[in-house]
Amino acid sequence: MPEQLLLQEAVDKVRPLLGKGKVAGYIPALANVDPNKIGIAITTVDGTTIGAGDYLEPFSIQSISKVFSLTLALNLYTEEEIWNRVGKEPSGHSFNSLVQVELERGKPRNPFINAGALIIADLLQARLGAPKHRMLEVVRQLSQDPSVTYDKTVADSEFQFSARNASIAYLMKSFGNFDGDVDTVLKSYFHYCSLKMSCADLSRAMFYLANRGKTLAGDEIVTPVQTRQLNALLATSGLYDGAGEFAYRVGMPGKSGVGGGIIAVIPGDMSICVWSPELDINGNSLAGTAMLEHISQQLGRSIFRLFNYY
Amino acid sequence: MPEQLLLQEAVDKVRPLLGKGKVAGYIPALANVDPNKIGIAITTVDGTTIGAGDYLEPFSIQSISKVFSLTLALNLYTEEEIWNRVGKEPSGHSFNSLVQVELERGKPRNPFINAGALIIADLLQARLGAPKHRMLEVVRQLSQDPSVTYDKTVADSEFQFSARNASIAYLMKSFGNFDGDVDTVLKSYFHYCSLKMSCADLSRAMFYLANRGKTLAGDEIVTPVQTRQLNALLATSGLYDGAGEFAYRVGMPGKSGVGGGIIAVIPGDMSICVWSPELDINGNSLAGTAMLEHISQQLGRSIFRLFNYY
Amino acid sequence: MPEQLLLQEAVDKVRPLLGKGKVAGYIPALANVDPNKIGIAITTVDGTTIGAGDYLEPFSIQSISKVFSLTLALNLYTEEEIWNRVGKEPSGHSFNSLVQVELERGKPRNPFINAGALIIADLLQARLGAPKHRMLEVVRQLSQDPSVTYDKTVADSEFQFSARNASIAYLMKSFGNFDGDVDTVLKSYFHYCSLKMSCADLSRAMFYLANRGKTLAGDEIVTPVQTRQLNALLATSGLYDGAGEFAYRVGMPGKSGVGGGIIAVIPGDMSICVWSPELDINGNSLAGTAMLEHISQQLGRSIFRLFNYY
Amino acid sequence: MPEQLLLQEAVDKVRPLLGKGKVAGYIPALANVDPNKIGIAITTVDGTTIGAGDYLEPFSIQSISKVFSLTLALNLYTEEEIWNRVGKEPSGHSFNSLVQVELERGKPRNPFINAGALIIADLLQARLGAPKHRMLEVVRQLSQDPSVTYDKTVADSEFQFSARNASIAYLMKSFGNFDGDVDTVLKSYFHYCSLKMSCADLSRAMFYLANRGKTLAGDEIVTPVQTRQLNALLATSGLYDGAGEFAYRVGMPGKSGVGGGIIAVIPGDMSICVWSPELDINGNSLAGTAMLEHISQQLGRSIFRLFNYY
Description:
homotetramer, alpha+beta, Beta-lactamase, 5-stranded antiparallel sheet, 3-stranded antiparallel sheet, 15 helices, 10 strands, about 45% helix, about 10% strand
């Protein structure tokens, strides 16, 4: 089946699931999104991007930004400097739990739970003069879309409701694992989360994860080994407390956000982004996961010889 | 590099690590193993098994048996019957923790932690007339080695020190998630753990995980989809609390045992087994992990085009 | 007000609360009790016992037996031998939680939660030839009622549903803090719990706690110092997860059971027992607590000069 | 024995314990205190204050201030308003643990752990125009010592190291159980903790707890019932994770601070304050506890007829 048809089929197939999940409601700016939006885009290793549904409409990428943050940190710090401060293991707890951070004395389990992403944001703050500006620059280059921008309303609104993240940051500070001013780092962190990008943007931006670390523009943003490592972390910890289920059903490294987006990677083949705002009980896009599952099954059977890789 | 040389190189490369880990000491039968043993074997999709070091010497497979148990259960129960009683998520806790089982009301996180494996053993006990006999039969067929047998001394010794596993089983029973007589199921469980197999045996026995569910003898023991699912579970939960690190360094679905063995899979290419009795702090073979890391790096660069799959 | 009237008033005052709690339903033998039963008895330091309501009707004393067990253990072991194996602190967890026992490596917080009481039962088993027989003997002497007996149906029924307690016992055994055979100790433990005694019986039996360790018969079963210590433990840990609230409202050392009984002590003045089968959310008799609160307020104002002791 | 001699004996008796504990070292201002200081003072119900050792030397009262805060809150809010926001139960966790606060969704267990005291500080901030000023006023009146003052160095220093308390406050805010600006409330809270008072001051200031709520000046600062309730809370939750042991050994409602002070109450008889900077593993003054134990034993035998109250 031509890929374009496959994407359209994925959208059509899962549309009946709309209404079965729940849009993230903790801030008004997210709660007001149209729950019927649904889109998918892929960028294949030859550099082509195609999509179906609302794949050109920007949405709030939220935790998907944690992939960009970690990638940026890998350009500023040695591996040791990073992994001394944050672990590489699945959390086994709800994504914003303080229990684990306290029991493990201030070291978050991985860079994709909130605690770990705050550590990465703290690292960026320490080495970058203008981290918000730099992040925007990087994301625009990766996605080849100069119109990508922060949603100030979302960023400000999240900061208003940031008590739990502040609590996590101060807890890590109490263990000596947070250097910056908490409010400053939180503001940067929420800006990263507030990035508005479309499925097309995100599939292009994540292209390097499918392409041994090389971006669409041909720059090596991370090494091939680092790419493999990033994908390993995404495969074990990218989907909050649903990583096992996602591996079981979809079988791709991936990262979700409460805005309803999920990016996923078939190394050597393509980067994918799906979007549908309603979430399942683990906080992952319900219809988005189903689209990825459909794609995985179809490609596994038809196009890619070795795609049954797990 | 010819594969035979690669295996020998892996053994030679990691031998200096001997002495840096710790042999499992909770029962004498395990504590007395020679800590300097080291072996590796692979079985490639063409059905050839080669090895290096002590790859023909049987050792106690311990938790590696959990892969066989789950595979057997998939032949006796529907998916729903299994996954209603045990989850698919990484545990985020030490492998024999009761905390998670209590907090999640008797449902273990996955079938590869002790609690989950006890559920699987309970399932086998309920549907098999002679589960210990049947397990032996299956393992002998899979490994094509009729001499594989239980180590009664190990099984009995583990039963003597089974208080923690009994505690876990009774806890699940108190939540209505354990049907059988605890002592009976524990005895079966410890027999499975006490299986003595060599690296060659295990790489042959796990061949189906690399071969879309088909055994060396050509039987489909699980479907291709189930194979992908088993590998997904192994990738996220097969290495106790070190699954993230293992994915990061090695990037293969795998399962370890406290006897020092680790099996790993490159789907479509080969099944692997390494053995070295000394363990790291997560309870995984220290030198064994290093051998797999070496293999992963060497193969990634040289033989398999798509092997950088994560 | 004469004491007899006070007791009758307490019963009448709280009767409207009947129907607001919940009878313990985990075994049929307990679930079938008449929820409208209500009684109170006091034994004053002069040795007189008076009561009101159903104060002569035997009921299942359940966890109140933990006071007898600990008292018996104090006669068989040194303080050090006891407190090395069980703590003296409030638990801060639900009364049958394994989490605390695991986090604190097999040492229960105090002798009045299930885990701690199992340790005490284990101690009794180790030093007494016939612990069940001896317990009956002691309780009959203390209550001066030779007709006190075990309820075999309750004891057997609890043993049938003992998975959680078995889990706790095996967990402690896995940490080296449980010596006996788990089933044997559990059977003794459930026998102690199944004792049937009336409010009158219990107020007489607990007399020594109000009388510097001397029983109604004049024997010193514990020393004055031990009496003070027992009362201290009851004051901080006797009411499951409601000890603080009970101290706040009632202000007496006390011990409750899920059969709906509560014993309480005004040292130097009287021992009290109330009974009403319906429980509050902490597992303490709802109307029973209210009767004790009434008594505390009335006595505080009227009879006992120093009764505002805390 | 005359009381003056008793106090001197207590000091002499425990002096050999100096050197066996550890001075609180988390801020320099506390770490630099002379570890050999030791003092005791009592104020009997007739209003007389006597003391021994360094009983006139001011020290940092730290968590003892939580008694004053709660007392002040009882004058500003209804009971319901207070106990809806903070519990009355022993915590069963280390005194500054976030685990409990998270598991119990933002409601601290009692007003004497840090989390609970921060709630009380938040309540004071909301209703008092100048809470720090008012607190000073109250404490000066209660102690009849107009020279009592805050130690700005200590208050500022604690604020510098307040990450963990900030984390707790933000966590409660995330559950909707913290109204004020976190920094503002923390600053007030640390001021209360930084109060410098002598044993004599504190025994006088706590007089109302022994005197049915009436201060030395004759004002009823809390009602007799509230006094009994305060003492009940102190008896079950006043000594961090050592409340059970303290009840067992000393048998008085009490409150400790990491500055090495402990106040204790014999209702109807006297208020007591001991001071010795070295702490035991629970964070309570080691020699201070021993002095109270000595006093308790001596008075129990000799002066107070009914003092074996538990």
